[in-house]
């Protein structure tokens, strides 16, 4: 076989209605392919000597560049939120006495269901638990009305181990909000406070961080999700819901006992 091979190509060009011929000369020892035509000057096409495809270049989105530090150990933005918020989140314990002498018919019926007829007990202590958060260094605590409703005694437990008896200052069942007050001795450390934000500026998709006392046993627990929706109304809530509803919806894990605890943003604002 000759060193060079000649291949005659017959090309039909419809646009100009004539036939053109071309000869392609391939030298197996050279990376250059030579094409000759009667109508065009010789054109040399340099063949690629690399078989590795070139990786396309692209710009890194700003959001990835700004959050690149999240891939490094101990740089989660939620660490700072936890350090700022958890000390001001409290667990709330309470109880109420129910019996045949209770003012509420519901409480009397509850007593009859729980206490056997042949018992000599006349009252039964019903415990409750929930969460709350300190909003003022003077000892004011926000929680839900249904957490403390009807309780005869309320105790607030801080993350640092301190416990105080709490007084009910005010409650609004229509919005399910209640305010408690704890009195701290002068020689005790100052109370930590969690700041209030502005819910009008919340956007769907931003971080939603829940802190509380789930199941009444897991104090100072934090879960993370996003704000899934705004303005949720007319919801049917087990056990009854507030008359006025304008809820933020989140996919952060929330369990019984979280009631009264805050949902905060990445700034640690409620």
UniProtKB/TrEMBL annotation:
Q: Which InterPro entries match?
A: Peptidase_S1_PA (IPR009003), Peptidase_S1C (IPR001940)
An annotated GO BP: proteolysis
Please indicate if the UniProt record lists rRNA-binding as a keyword: no
Q: Which UniProt keywords apply?
A: Hydrolase, Protease, Signal
Q: Which Pfam families match?
A: Trypsin_2
Q: Which residues form the signal peptide?
A: 1-22
| Gene Ontology MF terms | serine-type endopeptidase activity
Q: Under which name does UniProt file this protein?
A: Trypsin-like serine protease
Q: Give the source species.
A: Eiseniibacteriota bacterium
């Amino acid at each position: 076989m000759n060193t060079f091979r000649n291949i005659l190509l017959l090309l039909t060009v419809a646009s100009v209605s004539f036939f053109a011929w071309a000869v392609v000369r391939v030298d197996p020892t050279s990376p250059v392919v030579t094409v000759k035509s009667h109508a065009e000057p010789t054109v040399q096409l340099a063949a690629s000597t690399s078989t590795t495809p070139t990786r396309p270049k692209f710009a890194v989105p700003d959001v990835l560049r700004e959050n690149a530090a999240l891939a490094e150990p101990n740089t989660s933005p939620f660490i700072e939120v936890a350090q700022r918020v958890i000390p001001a989140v409290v667990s709330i314990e309470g109880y109420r006495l129910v019996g045949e002498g209770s003012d509420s018919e519901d409480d009397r019926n509850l007593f009859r269901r729980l206490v056997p007829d042949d018992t000599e007990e006349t009252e039964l202590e019903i415990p409750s638990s929930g969460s709350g958060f300190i909003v003022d260094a003077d000892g004011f605590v926000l929680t839900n009305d249904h957490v403390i409703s009807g309780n005869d005694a309320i105790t607030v437990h801080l993350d640092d181990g301190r416990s105080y008896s709490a007084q009910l200052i005010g409650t609004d069942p229509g919005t399910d909000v209640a305010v408690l007050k704890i009195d701290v001795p002068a020689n005790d450390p100052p109370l930590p406070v969690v700041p209030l934000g502005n819910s009008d500026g919340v956007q769907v998709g931003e971080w939603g961080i829940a802190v509380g006392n789930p199941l009444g046993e897991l104090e100072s627990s934090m879960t993370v999700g996003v704000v899934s929706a705004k303005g949720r109304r007319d919801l049917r809530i087990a056990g009854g819901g507030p008359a006025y509803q304008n809820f933020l919806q989140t996919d952060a894990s929330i369990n019984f006992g979280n009631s009264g605890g805050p949902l905060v943003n990445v700034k640690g604002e409620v």
